[in-house]
């Protein structure tokens, strides 16, 4: 004790021995030591503060209860690590092992590894061959150190872990030389999958035949792998033949294989086969999933089977699958094309009730529907909703908005919308340019319409037939004959000209008094078998009557009177009956036609002008009598006198006026005008 005396210790301090049991004095300070033991190390048993077992008498008590906590904690950590790394994470799984399995596990040095040490070495040895050229190595020499060390299961593991198809091929050839090898569908399936991923169809087919020759019965996995290989690389004919063979043998395929086949067929637009395979699935009672229903509905809509598609859609909803936006979009678009606006709007309301935000394609379909129904207020409301949900507006929607603003007469808004699309760089399709040009034509802004079409041509956008029609219309309204003729030639190069364009061409010829060109043009369009309507017939007959072309006129009347769309019209029927009238034949056949309203006064006016130009007094008088019996006939006959005077033909005007005076129906105004004109002409 004297040796322990020191100035460092107070003299009153007495050193006492530590009692066996002392009461712990609670510490009220909140300060703890920052250094703690490693949570993954096992306890040495000296810690007296270890947790007590749950039961008083544990069934299998451990030497240290902290070991169980550490093992379970590490298991949870590795499980979370596997989930975060994906399905191929190289982390061990916690499994129950017998003592013999544990001894083998330790001998393989697999602690913390997915495979044993020798298996990992074999995998790495074969993988390293991918850096060498084909034929520069011998697989027997590479794997010489692994002979008789790998079991069949381990060889399958090495085969499965290869990334290159050449390594799979060479290792499988070495694998078949080992004593522990036995032909198995598992190994062949691994090889088939490796070949299928890189498109080695021929090698896959040879491997499948080799499997059959080896006496291995292919299971549904091997067959499904072969089908997926065909489907992945677009070999649809072999795929369907192989599928038919599997059907005959009663092989049941999984849903994933069916979906793979359906997706491949759908991409190649083989929709009939999609429906056929779906029916086979239903017959085999394979329950489809969300992806299956989406593909089948799309294929049915592509085939125009709208009712069947909607039936599948109802089945999908009854099974609890929530349809995606693309499914709603396809159905809405199909109903819009079928002019079933009520069903399309119901589907849209159903989609919005599920809080599904529509895509720009769906919005374009609805805008088209509103445009066709002339419900422009709803169209503008939908566009506002698109802005609220920040739905991307594409060129199609901008084009529809331009048309809608044009129909509403909001030409400034249409122009601003077009300029906004141009500023965003969305103008790549001619339809938007055509829509803006049509709006300008409706507003009689012919210069701007022509500028829009010229701007489209400067963008190297290929003009369609419809674009040529609009361009030709712009030149006609600008009264630019030379450019109009060039545009009409370009239009004719795309096919037979349309009726409206031919009518406009005759209009510009007659407007500029180019009746020689008009005559040649009428002969050309008759030769080209242009489809005539009533307006074009009227303009052609106007040219013939102006030039006195009686023979051509009668041939033309004979042609159009046999045309199915025109022969029953009042205008053509009047032309035909008047051309046959001679010495009262018409009255004998049909009675008083003019008074009964059967004859068209405008057609009678044209025929009267034709017979005046030909100098046929008999038919002129007879046609005039028919015209005077018609409603407003007197007015039309006197107006015709004024037209002839305006055209500068005093001789015809005098003849017609004399016939009207003889019938006591001549207007005083036209008599005076004709008298003054005749005196000037004389």
Describe the structure.
The protein contains 35 helices and no strands. The protein has 682 residues and is mainly α. The chain has a domain at 543-681. The longest helix has 20 residues, at 66-85.
User: Whole-number radius of gyration?
Assistant: 46 Å
Largest sheet: none
Overall mean confidence score, pLDDT: 82
Q: Report the structural category.
A: mainly alpha
Oligomer: single chain
Shape: elongated
Strand elements, count: 0
Helicity, in percent?
55-70%
Instruction: Estimate the strand proportion.
Output: under 5%
**Number of distinct helices:** 35
Unreliably modeled segments: 1-23, 25-43, 588-592, 677-682
Keywords:
TPR-like_helical_dom_sf, Pentatricopeptide repeat-containing protein, PPR_rpt, 64% helix, 682 residues, mainly alpha, disordered N terminus, repeat
List strands and helices in order, with pairings.
Blueprint: H1 66-85, H2 99-107, H3 117-127, H4 139-142, H5 152-160, H6 165-175, H7 185-198, H8 201-213, H9 220-232, H10 236-249, H11 255-267, H12 271-283, H13 290-302, H14 306-318, H15 325-337, H16 341-353, H17 360-372, H18 376-388, H19 395-407, H20 411-423, H21 430-442, H22 446-458, H23 465-477, H24 481-493, H25 499-511, H26 515-527, H27 534-547, H28 550-560, H29 570-580, H30 585-590, H31 601-614, H32 617-629, H33 633-647, H34 650-662, H35 668-681
Helix pairs in contact: 3-5, 6-7, 7-8, 7-9, 9-10, 9-11, 11-12, 11-13, 12-13, 13-14, 13-15, 15-16, 15-17, 17-18, 17-19, 19-20, 19-21, 20-21, 21-22, 21-23, 22-23, 23-24, 23-25, 24-25, 25-26, 25-27, 26-27, 27-28, 27-31, 28-29, 29-31, 31-32, 31-33, 32-33, 33-34, 33-35, 34-35
Region (Disordered): 42-66
GO biological process, one term: chloroplast-nucleus signaling pathway
Organism: Saponaria officinalis (Common soapwort)
């Amino acid at each position: 004790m004297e040796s322990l005396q020191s100035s460092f210790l107070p003299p009153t301090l007495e050193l006492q021995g530590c009692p066996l049991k002392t009461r712990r004095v609670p510490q009220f300070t909140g300060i703890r030591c920052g250094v703690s033991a490693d949570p993954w190390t096992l306890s040495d048993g000296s810690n007296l503060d270890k947790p007590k077992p749950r039961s008083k008498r544990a069934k299998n008590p451990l030497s240290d209860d902290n070991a169980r906590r550490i093992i379970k904690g590490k298991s949870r950590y590795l499980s979370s690590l596997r989930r975060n790394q994906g399905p191929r994470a190289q982390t061990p799984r916690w499994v129950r092992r017998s003592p013999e399995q544990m001894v083998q596990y330790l001998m393989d040095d697999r602690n913390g590894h997915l495979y044993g040490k020798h298996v990992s070495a074999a995998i790495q040895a074969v993988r390293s061959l991918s850096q060498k050229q084909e034929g520069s190595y011998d697989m027997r020499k590479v794997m010489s150190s692994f002979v008789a060390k790998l079991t069949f299961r381990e060889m399958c593991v090495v085969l499965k872990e290869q990334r290159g198809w050449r390594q799979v091929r060479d290792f499988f050839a070495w694998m078949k030389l080992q004593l522990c090898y036995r032909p198995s569908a598992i190994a062949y399936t691994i090889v088939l999958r490796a070949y299928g991923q890189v498109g080695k169809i021929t090698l896959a087919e040879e491997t499948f035949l080799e499997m059959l020759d080896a006496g291995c019965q292919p299971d549904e996995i091997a067959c499904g792998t072969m089908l997926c290989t065909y489907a992945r690389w677009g070999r649809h004919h072999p795929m369907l033949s192989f599928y038919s063979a599997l059907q005959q043998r009663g092989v049941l395929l999984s849903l994933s294989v069916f979906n793979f086949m359906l997706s491949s067929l759908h991409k190649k637009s083989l929709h009939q086969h999609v429906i056929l395979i779906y029916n086979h699935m239903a017959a085999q009672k394979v329950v489809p999933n969300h992806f299956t229903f989406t593909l089948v509905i799309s294929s049915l809509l592509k085939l125009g089977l709208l009712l069947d598609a909607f039936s599948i859609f109802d089945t999908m909803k009854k099974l609890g699958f929530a349809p995606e936006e693309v499914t709603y979009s396809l159905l809405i678009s199909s109903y819009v094309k079928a002019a079933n606006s009520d069903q399309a709007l119901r589907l849209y309301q159903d989609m919005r009730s599920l809080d599904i935000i529509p895509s720009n394609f769906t919005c374009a379909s609805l805008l088209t529907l509103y445009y066709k129904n002339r419900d422009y207020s709803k169209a503008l409301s939908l566009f506002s909703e698109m802005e609220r949900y920040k739905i991307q507006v594409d060129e199609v929607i901008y084009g529809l908005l331009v048309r809608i603003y044009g129909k509403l007469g909001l030409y400034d808004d249409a122009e601003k919308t077009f300029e906004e699309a141009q500023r965003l760089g969305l103008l790549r399709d001619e339809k938007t340019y055509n829509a803006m040009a049509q709006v300008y034509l409706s507003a009689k802004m012919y210069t701007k319409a022509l500028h829009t079409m010229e701007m489209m041509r400067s963008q190297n956008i290929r003009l369609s037939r419809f674009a040529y029609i609009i361009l030709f219309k712009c030149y006609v309204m600008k009264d630019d004959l030379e450019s109009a003729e060039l545009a009409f030639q370009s239009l004719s190069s795309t096919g037979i000209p349309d009726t409206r364009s031919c009518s406009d061409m005759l209009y510009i010829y007659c407007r500029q008094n180019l009746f020689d060109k008009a005559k040649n043009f009428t002969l050309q369009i008759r030769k080209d078998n242009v489809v005539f309507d009533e307006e074009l017939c009227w303009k052609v007959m106007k040219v013939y009557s102006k030039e006195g072309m009686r023979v051509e006129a009668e041939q033309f009347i004979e042609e159009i009177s046999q045309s199915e769309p025109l022969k029953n019209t009042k205008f053509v029927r009047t032309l035909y009956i008047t051309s046959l009238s001679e010495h009262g034949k018409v009255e004998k056949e049909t009675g008083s036609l003019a008074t009964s309203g059967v004859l068209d006064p405008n057609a009678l006016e044209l025929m009267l002008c034709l017979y005046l130009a030909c100098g046929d007094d008999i038919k002129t008088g007879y046609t005039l009598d028919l015209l005077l019996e018609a409603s407003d006939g007197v007015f039309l006959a006197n107006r015709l006198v004024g037209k002839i005077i305006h055209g500068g033909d005093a001789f015809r005007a005098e003849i017609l006026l004399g016939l009207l005076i003889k019938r006591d129906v001549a207007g005083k105004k036209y008599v005076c005008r004709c008298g003054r004109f005749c005196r000037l002409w004389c």
